[in-house]
Specification:
Layout (H helix, E strand, L loop, with lengths): L5 H16 L7 E4 L4 H16 L4 E7 L6 H14 L5 E5 L9 H20 L3 E3 L4 H14 L3 H4 L5 E3 L7 E3 L7 H11 L15 H16 L3 H30 L4 E2 L8 H14 L9 H12 L7 E3 L3 E6 L2 E6 L3
Parallel strand pairs: 1-2, 1-4, 2-3, 4-6
Antiparallel strand pairs: 5-6, 7-10, 8-9, 9-10
């Protein structure tokens, strides 16, 4: 008997390897399905792989309500998930609040909250997300364009806690799978993916990055997307090692104020991560905390000429007096 088509096989292998490596084989999981090719292919692969490993697989379709007709799109996606044998399948409608981080960020936050809530409600161990190797390459390309640091260039992790304190994990089995394979899977299985109009809207930076990748492949040769994704994997290892070193150093500092002598000897990459951990622990919102903020704080140690305090998002202020650096709330 002939095996599955190559694209179908590739998506199934990716899901099997991901769940096995994370110790999730046989566990109940949910697929986040938008109705696009990537998430439909993921639903199909998970629907085949998970039950054979002794687990159960359902789906959650999040309707953001940001475009006309999204309710119908969500119901169509749910219907296709049911034909693939997934259960339970739930459509969740969310309200996307406008924030200064932009509509994409706000929609992502609302979606992740809805997915995590659904997983906790049904007792799922993980939510599977359909990001592909191409998405990872686009993420790295955007980081390069912004001049971001190691953590940003490390791209999306294969798995992470859904939110602090939750046992649910967000898992991305397709980070090694090209988008062409998910599209091919849908064709082979007779699935009808939805094409999100936002994916063609060049008002979104990610869409412009997506259009640049084929140009890079044409001008520099094939394999650029794969190389960018490999770069993310390598940098993620580096970032995790530096984060661990910074966490250890942060733990040794104790409560403020901190003597400069205890900071100046740290490698710059570790010290900047210490500042970030300090700011986040004190309540600074991570999305608003930039490299420029951290460099400004670091200059209090490395290039101090009596300059004044550095203000951080969240109403925080760090200043130096003599050999001591301390943290204050500028709105006590």
């Amino acid at each position: 008997m002939a095996g599955p088509a190559p694209d179908v096989a590739a998506t199934r292998v990716a899901v099997r390897r991901s769940l096995t490596s994370l110790g999730l084989a046989g566990s109940p999981v949910l697929v986040a399905c938008s109705g696009g090719a990537d998430s439909l292919a993921l639903a199909a692969a998970a629907g085949f792989v998970v039950p054979r490993a002794g687990g159960t697989v359902g789906a959650v379709v999040v309707d953001h309500g940001l475009q006309a007709g999204t309710a119908a799109v969500a119901e169509a996606a749910a219907a296709q998930c049911r034909t693939l044998g997934l259960a339970p399948v739930e459509v969740v409608r969310v309200r996307v609040e406008t924030t200064r981080e932009g509509p994409e960020s706000a929609a992502r936050d609302a979606r992740h909250t809805a997915l995590t809530d659904a997983a906790e409600r049904v007792g799922a161990a993980a939510v599977l997300l359909g990001h592909t190797r191409d998405d990872q390459a686009e993420q790295v390309l955007l980081g390069l364009a912004r001049g971001s640091g190691t953590r940003s260039l490390a791209g999306m992790p294969p798995a992470r806690p859904a939110r602090p304190g939750s046992a649910v994990r967000l898992v991305r089995p397709f980070l090694s799978v090209p988008r062409a394979a998910t599209e091919g899977t849908c064709r082979e299985l007779g699935l009808t993916p939805w094409s999100d109009p936002h994916n063609d809207d060049e008002g979104f930076t990610r869409v412009r990055a997506r259009k640049i990748l084929p140009v890079l492949e044409r001008e520099l040769g094939p394999g650029v997307a794969a190389a960018l994704a490999r770069t993310a994997d390598l940098l993620r290892d580096d970032a995790e090692a530096l984060d661990a070193a910074a966490h250890t150093a942060y733990g040794r500092l104790g409560d403020p104020p901190w003597p400069v002598s205890g900071l100046v000897g740290l490698p710059a990459a570790v010290r900047r991560r210490v500042w970030r951990e300090l700011a986040l622990a004190a309540g600074s919102p991570s999305g608003a905390l930039t490299g420029e903020h951290l460099r400004g704080v670091d200059s209090l140690v490395t290039h101090w000429r009596g300059q004044g305090p550095v203000d951080l998002p969240g109403g925080l202020r760090i200043h130096r007096r003599g050999d001591l650096v301390t943290l204050l709330d500028r709105n006590p």
